[in-house]
Amino acid sequence: MNAPTAARLGLVACQVCELVSRPPAAACACPRCGARLHSRKPDSIARTWALLLAAAILYVPANLEPVMITRSIFGTQRDTILSGVAYLWHSGSWPLAVLVFVASVLVPLLKLLALSYLAASTQRRSRVRQRQKTRLYRLLEFIGRWSMLDVFVVMVLVALVKMGALANIQAGPGAMWFGGVVVLTMFASMSFDPRLIWDPSGGADG
After folding, report:
1. Is the pLDDT of residue 13 over 70?
2. Which of 136, 166, 174 minimizes the C-alpha distance to 58?
3. What is the C-alpha separation between 83 and 97, in angstroms, rounded?
């Protein structure tokens, strides 16, 4: 690319107050808020991979372990996310079943796969479809604003089977693992620096 870039012009954006400045060579702090300046997020790819790996590990028990445990006079019932989806589908509440499946199973999995693709292609310094990868990251950022919807859907499952004094409903270990997946994928998205996508085309020197 022949167009000048911010890195070549010596411009650095503060990640706290978003001020774009040209600090002196010896300066490493934002002139407005005093935060430490970096041309790129430090260890962005390594941190993203670490968080993605942890989220992928938690994704398995999040779907296999029960998210709620119901104790009643009829016995104890342990429900996973998938068993809840199956129950809603067979009971005729297929719109809610689709919502639970998409928000609690499909969306976290797609976020893991999409972030892994971005991290892998950026690590290889690939120049293929850079604009599309940037749009994909923006989409992940938008979805990230609704990440807690996944946890909310799990709580809806608990509310649907609440039977007052006839039953005692507790959150199962799957709910904890599921919350961990949501938090880790949010941090992974925040750790990834999308500017690294354009560096192979001359976006930065290092």
Report:
1. yes
2. 174
3. 10
pTM of the model: 0.76
Q: What is the pLDDT of residues 45-65, one digit of tens each?
A: 999 999 999 999 999 998 888
Report the greatest alpha carbon distance in the chain: 74
More confident residue, 85 or 35: 85
Question: What string of DSSP letters covers 113-154?
Answer: HHHHHHHHHHHTT--TTHHHHHHHHHHHHHHHTTTHHHHHHH
Q: How many residues does the chain have?
A: 206
Boundaries of every domain in the chain: 1-39, 43-201
* CA dist., res. 62 & res. 81, Å (int): 8
Contact 188, 41 (CB under 8 A): no
Task: Please give the structure tokens belonging to residue 87.
Answer: 């129950």
The answer, yes or no, to whether residue 40 has pLDDT greater than 70, is yes
User: In Å, how far are 54, 79, 136 from 118, measured between CA atoms?
Assistant: 17, 34, 9
What is the full DSSP assignment across the chain? --S--TTTTT-EE-TTT--EE---TT--B-TTT-PBP-SS-TTHHHHHHHHHHHHHHHHHHHHHS-SEEEEETTEEEEE-HHHHHHHHHHTT-HHHHHHHHIIIIIHHHHHHHHHHHHHHHHHTT--TTHHHHHHHHHHHHHHHTTTHHHHHHHHHHHHHT--GGGEEEEE-HHHHHHHHHHHHHHHHHHH--GGGGTGGGTT---
